[in-house]
Amino acid sequence: MARDRRDTYYWRAKDEGYRSRAAYKLFQINEKHEVIKEGDTIVDLGAAPGGWLEVAKKISGGKIVGVDLRRIKEIEGVETIKGDITSDETIKKIIEMVGEGGADVVICDAAPNLSGNWSLDHARSIDLTTSALECAKKILKPKGHFIVKVFQGDMFKEYMDKVRESFTFTRAFSPKASRQESAEIYVIGKKLLTAPLKIDDKFDVTIKKIGSKGNGIAFVEDFVVFMQDEVKKGENVRIKIVDVKPEFAFAIVIGRYDEELKENNEE
Ligand SMILES: C[S@@+](CC[C@H](N)C(=O)[O-])C[C@H]1O[C@@H](n2cnc3c(N)ncnc32)[C@H](O)[C@@H]1O
Prior knowledge:
Helices cover 31% and strands 31% of the residues. 34% of the residues are buried. It has 267 residues and is an alpha/beta fold. The chain binds S-adenosylmethionine.
């Protein structure tokens, strides 16, 4: 059989001893986006036959846990769970295996059984990736990273927005090793947000101090929020969150209670 261009990665996987050609997708995603680093604890959702597990082990050398509906043949230094990633029972098992500290990275190349009906397959993929995102949020450390395969379609943007709500940086990426005709794309979420607030949340706060750059600073459950509008120390304001970073957020002022109070007293 000719080694045609389409099968380059198939043959490379055979030559280099990886269990799947998918292994090169993870290498390429990591080369571009630097998600996995040495020593990371990694959970792979939908991991059989185990190409990604081999790559994760090679790059990280840390604790690696693989989960799949199918049994994963043993890989040295990798722990495996036979289970459904959409079930709470499996998530409990993963947490027990990973430990209280949580995982540094959750990767998910899971794919539903394809029917050939485009919109049905897209909907099934979105269901599965939504479960993977929920699972990742439960098992990741604060500021942990997430890689997930999605089949593109009309619900893709909505899914990206969901990932964007939970991570500081979100990108979509097609590795060269994905087949040209494939509808798959990988979504990368970096730095899981664990802030007690999210974009568009509204709070009543008191400006506690003015920062070195002149921005007013308030706190929501000890989380620092910088005001984008001019405020005075001690002012009571209603704010709307407009951007969230891992350690602080930005807000605009949508109401000034002291002025309302003053106006009411003057009437
Ligand atoms: C494309 S393969 C993964 C290939 C793997 N990344 C590799 O490099 O070897 C997709 C896997 O997702 C698994 N899968 C699909 N739905 C799942 C679910 N609900 N729970 C666990 N695994 C699932 C399938 O059994 C299949 O083995």
